[in-house]
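Quick one: sequence plus zinc ion SMILES, need structure tokens.
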Amino acid sequence: MLMIRRDLVDAMVGHARRDHPDEACGVVAGPVGSDRPERLIEMANAERSPTFYRFDATEQLRVWRAMDAADEEPAVIYHSHTATEAYPSRTDISYASQPDAHYVLVSTRDPDSHELRSYRIIDGEVTEEPVEVVESYMFSHNGADDVPDAP
Ligand SMILES: [Zn+2]
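Reply:
Sure thing.
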């Protein structure tokens, strides 16, 4: 399951709308091992295409190095589809190299409502997962009931 803050969802959708009809792409970094997307980084689509996306190699190196330096990892790798549903294409699957990342797709084919879905892509196998949008991670992760009562 992907749990993600609403402001990050809004930022991904906003980026996708802005770049429409070209595909938009980027990552949301989170602390290593936390599975918690926190810092959104919009990236350039080196293809500038309505049907493909590819990170610019130089930018990707820079962004990945900055994450390394901050003890972060790409919790979410997102891109948009502008004329088709939010499902990874064959090219998307072949480029997917991060088994620990949530691959988020946003479709902007409908001007009035967006579609946002999340997948794991491991060894070419695509598994959709539920997305839970939360206002804050503070109370949602373990739930208040998991906090032990004071003695
Ligand atoms: Zn795609």
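The helical segments are 6-19, 57-69, 90-95. Residues 6-19 form the longest helix (14 residues).
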